């Protein structure tokens, strides 16, 4: 497969974007990429730009959100690493063919007009892995 071209973003699980964003925006001075709700995942996300990559703060909007369950089990902190790929379908097929368990068998809609898919942490050294490709 074509290797990912770069780290797109690091996803950080937080209880409150309002509380957590002060560090990234005011202390580090990172450009604020705005906040967006992804309703099918029951999350709200905020992006802060760091060079070519971004920090993604992820806040649950419902108690049954996967992020709410993560916060309950593990507390706030690094949640996933997202790699930018050119061909998400081909990447998923190659990863699956390598025997790695996928969470998303096919791409779905993420924030910022991205097609995204997650790989189970079991196959990647314990790190929840996201692949993303700009849609269209
Ligand atoms: Zn993400």
Major sheet size, sense and barrel closure:
8 strands, mixed
**Broad shape:** globular
Which quaternary structure do these chains form?
A: single chain
- Counting DSSP H or I runs of 4 or more residues, the number of helices is 3
> Could you say which structural class the secondary elements and strand pairing correspond to?
alpha+beta
In spatial order, strands of the major sheet run: 2-3-4-1-5-8-7-6
Counted beta strands:
8
- Output the CATH topology: 2,3-Dihydroxybiphenyl 1,2-Dioxygenase, domain 1
CATH superfamily: 2,3-Dihydroxybiphenyl 1,2-Dioxygenase, domain 1
Low-confidence stretches: none
Average pLDDT, all residues: 95
Q: What layout of secondary structure does this protein have?
A:
Layout: E1 6-13, H1 17-27, E2 32-38, E3 43-50, E4 53-60, H2 66-74, E5 77-84, H3 88-97, E6 108-109, E7 114-119, E8 129-134
Parallel strand pairs: 1-4, 5-8
Antiparallel strand pairs: 1-5, 2-3, 3-4, 6-7, 7-8
Tell me what the structure shows.
By secondary structure, the protein is an alpha+beta fold. It has one domain (6-134): 2,3-Dihydroxybiphenyl 1,2-Dioxygenase, domain 1. 22% of the residues lie in helices and 39% in strands. It is built from three helices and eight strands, in the order βαβββαβαβββ. The protein has helices at residues 17-27, 66-74, 88-97; strands at residues 6-13, 32-38, 43-50, 53-60, 77-84, 108-109, 114-119, 129-134. Strands 2-3-4-1-5-8-7-6 form an eight-stranded mixed sheet. A hairpin with a 4-residue loop joins β6 and β7. The longest helix is centred in the first third of the chain and has 11 residues, at 17-27. The chain starts with 5 loop residues before the first strand and ends with a strand. The relative contact order is 0.20. Zinc ion binds next to β1 and β5.
